[in-house]
Amino acid sequence: MPRFLVFDIGTSAGRAMLGTLHDDRLALDPVCRFPNRAVPVRGTLYWDILYLWDGILDGLREWVRHDDPALDGIGLDTWAVDFALLDAQGALLDNPVSNRDRRTDGLIGRVLERIPREELHARTGIQFMQINTLYQLYALARAGSPTLHHADTFLSVADLLNYWLTGRKVVEFSSATCTQFYDPIADDWARDLLERLDIPTAMLPEVVSPGTVLGPLDTGLPELAALEGENPVPVIAVVTHDTGSAVAAVPVDPADTGNFAYISSGTWSLMGTEVPAPVITPDTLRYDFTNEGGINRTFRLLKNILGMWLVQACQEVWAGEGTTLTDADCVALAAAAPPFGPVIDPYPNSPDFRTPGDMPARIRAFCQRTDQPIPADKGAVLRCIFESLALKYRQTLDQLEIVLGHPVNVIHIVGGGSQNALLCQMTADATVHPVIAGPAEATSLGNLVTQAMATGFIASLADARALIRRSVTLVRYEPAPSAAWDDAYRRFLATAGQ
Fold it and tell me: CA-to-CA distance for 102 and 87, rounded, in angstroms?
């Protein structure tokens, strides 16, 4: 029975899962969990990367305690765009900074003064978001950062952790494409663009495909010595961007190949489709779509949307006020609130909603500024968020069909948000498309099947997706369109940007 250790690390938590292939089914079993958090230090918001590394070591040590700790592979995925810089000896020069830090405020405009928007999009095919690695590096260059000056190697967060596991310094394809300085047509770093921004390029390492075996787990290190066994455990560069792993696990029916959309629904909502090559056109620029790398070096033509981050930020504020609400509580409150109230635009570049703060107050202020009714209570705030997300999905789907030049048949919702029946039905109703929800554990499943394909236990992506369809329960939501949703959409477009 093939067994793989899956590390899935998001911006709020990480976990280790044991993935197995048995009796023509996939299974995931928890090994351990550990929190993740950004830590403010004198005005800068850092990731506690050493704490995350210790969480990975805990997962490995916990697995060793099993009766038979033999593994066929280890793979990890994280969020994208954030990075680490190493010196010539491979030492970490500074803790990675969170993409929610304010150092990139206003820098898109500064970059576009040197590189025209049309040229930057044509070269990279990437959505303009100030969280992108390009603007983070430009912030360092403008500040004359000694860290940047002394950097010998650039690695994404996932690639840093893989380097610590194996000693190999490479960047995996999906993480490279998310930086906004990778040229998917040339299939290489766009070094000339960085040079025009005074960003050094000698630090950029080799880019490897998803499914690359990086090497054996380096059990020569003291912290990994307990994992030494008769057979070295291969560490595999899965689709290291967690959304890319989630999309690898979208349980597409072969009849819908090329005609489906997905929403990877979690802290972020990533909505798009899978294409064999990047789509870079005037329409992708106009609608601010992005081309991010995926499994088998496909591309995820998508748009980033603020997702459950909005709810999570509200939960934090209310908990500070003495009211702790679970996700289920939030859904129940929203379901009980009157429908079709005010709407917001959950777009990543929005100064209203992108950064941490008093989210309920920000939503009320936005509604007041846009001459809409102000949400009166928690349920109304949550209803506003969920309906706005569904309407944003409709706008994005309309734009996606224009870009593709053909209609989409079905929307797959994967990730934690697939368990939110209220939002799934709202999405079907707002978009007038059937929604298939599940799997909730899409990222871990995508990580697992990538490892299994890399080691020969699964023959193809089509076989992997068929295996996922047999292994999970999917829920289908049929649309119930109404004039009320159409009216809400018109109001949404009046307040929305991209």
Answer: 25
